[in-house]
Amino acid sequence: MKTSEHEVIFAIVNSGFAEDVMEVAREQGVRGGTILNARGVVREDAAAFFGITLHADKEILMMVVEKSLRDRVLNAIYKEMGMAKKAKGIAFSLPVSDVAGLAPVQPPEEITE
User: Fold this and answer.
1) Per-residue pLDDT reduced to its tens digit, 58-92
2) What CATH code is carried by the domain that includes residue 32?
């Protein structure tokens, strides 16, 4: 189905921190994501220039979110998991043009007594 209402957020963090990022995202309304194991590569002179420590093992958390959540989620990830934190995270989003298999957000059912 064609859509312009969704974005995919990628959060790349040091190994062991993707679940923490997912928790931060859930607090902002994200329902779920997918974690991929990865390995980071960077030239040593670039690492020295940016003042970062190299950690080869990374995790990539991918979350398809409603566009209305994007900025709130990215800001929360930056605040809680950014480069100044142990996760050494970076997050960005890309537009999604087609989706399949996403369940629409359903309001909670009313309880009748």
Assistant:
1) 999 999 999 999 999 999 999 999 888 888 888 99
2) 3.30.70.120
